[in-house]
Amino acid sequence: MTMIRTLLLTLALAMSVSACSVLRGQETVGEYTSDASITTSVKTSYAKDPAVAATAIGVETMDGIVQLSGFAKTSEEKSRAEVLAKQVKGVKSVRNSIIVRP
Q: Which of 26, 39, 41, 99 could bridge to 88 as Cys pair (CB 3.0-4.6 Å)?
């Protein structure tokens, strides 16, 4: 039940955060849809991986470039989040700005 709730929260957050870019005219609707799909896929992979705290890591995507932010408990979690993001189809590159904080 917790996993489903986390996934739903992740999807809602991804859709609300990424909706702003189309309104600002930074992307076409097709690019926005692709970037929103990438963001959702990255967050979903985090929700499935017990080594990554999906709710503590922010994900934004523009033109296939994924920006990671937030806090990780260990450097391994930070690295794992980047690896998972790079594995998502359509990702051109990943900028990892996650801060490790015990």
A: 41
| Amino acid letter, 43 | K
Strand partners, 66: 61, 94
Determine contact, residues 66/38, Cβ cutoff 8 Å: yes
Decide if pLDDT at 17 tops 60: no
DSSP secondary structure string for all residues of 41-93: HHHHHHHH-TTS-GGGEEEEEETTEEEEEEEESSHHHHHHHHHHHHTSTT--E
Structural domain span for residue 44: 2-100
Closest CA to 45 of 80, 76, 97: 80
pTM: 0.71
- Tens digit of pLDDT for each residue in 43-82? 999 999 999 999 999 999 999 999 999 999 999 999 999 9
Domain count across the chain: 1
